[in-house]
Specification:
Layout (H helix, E strand, L loop, with lengths): L2 H39 L4 E4 L3 H14 L11 E3 L4 H10 L7 H7 L5 E5 L6 H12 L3 E7 L3 H6 L5 E5 L4 H24 L3
Parallel strand pairs: 1-2, 1-3, 3-4, 4-5
The chain binds D-altro-hept-2-ulose 7-phosphate and zinc ion.
The site of zinc ion (ZN) has 3 residues, from helix 7.
Catalytic activity: 2 D-sedoheptulose 7-phosphate = D-glycero-alpha-D-manno-heptose 7-phosphate + D-glycero-beta-D-manno-heptose 7-phosphate
Keywords: Carbohydrate metabolism, Cytoplasm, Isomerase, Metal-binding, Zinc
Function: Catalyzes the isomerization of sedoheptulose 7-phosphate in D-glycero-D-manno-heptose 7-phosphate.
């Protein structure tokens, strides 16, 4: 096994995918940032969810909005639905794991809030249920997916924004997801602070 060759291939594949994704996703990422800023300045909040690595991404993004990214600005309203183990275990234990995010969206979501729904396959049942709950609450959805967008792609409304990474590998898709989230944080800061 030539590990160095393998590692170089991972870096090369990831870099090439990022350049391809930039060509396809720059415009919808900008649109998502503008929509999020509109939500935030009207006192809305952003709820974020996902499983596994995407749970970590949801938390990473909400922390950068609530605390800070790279510029000094006021704290922004964002909540990851992946972090409260008492809430997550009680919903999963008393009902089903499929409902762990949707029940929180129904409790916390208000019209004008937004849901950031992250899934590399687009097929995680609990993320799908969260999208349905967000629609019931008149919340727009920004969906971060990969592959074909899965069942999430079919569920989205015209007012939602779909950022689908053109790749099959979960790891490669996640690597573009985290870059996309940093682009969103940077764009939100630029729009809020009026950076030219
Ligand atoms: O981070 C990884 C793989 O790189 C895993 O933890 C991965 O996120 C989990 O298998 C998720 O359950 C996959 O869900 P999804 O992206 O298909 O919604
Ligand atoms: Zn991973």
């Amino acid at each position: 096994m030539d590990l160095i060759k393998r590692i170089n291939a991972h870096f090369s594949d990831s870099a090439q995918l990022k350049l391809k994704a930039a060509r396809e996703l720059a415009a919808p990422i900008a649109a998502a940032a503008e929509r999020m800023v509109q939500c935030l300045i009207k006192d809305g909040k952003i709820l974020a969810c996902g499983n596994g690595g995407s749970a970590a991404d949801a938390q990473h993004f909400s922390a950068e909005l609530l605390n800070r990214f790279e510029m000094e600005r006021p704290a922004l309203a964002a909540i990851a639905l992946t972090t409260d183990s008492s809430t997550l275990t009680s919903i999963a234990n008393d009902y089903t794991f499929v409902e762990v995010f949707s029940k929180q969206v129904r409790a916390l979501g208000r019209p004008g809030d937004m849901l950031l729904a992250i899934s590399t396959s687009g097929n995680s049942p609990n993320v799908i249920e969260a999208i349905k709950a967000a629609h019931e609450r008149d919340m727009d959805v920004v969906a971060l997916t990969g592959r074909s967008g899965g069942k999430m792609a079919e569920l989205l409304r015209p007012s939602d924004i779909h950022l689908c990474v053109p790749a099959q590998s979960t790891a490669r898709i996640q690597e573009v997801h985290i870059l996309t989230l940093h682009c969103l944080c940077d764009a939100i800061d630029c729009l809020l602070l009026g950076v030219e």
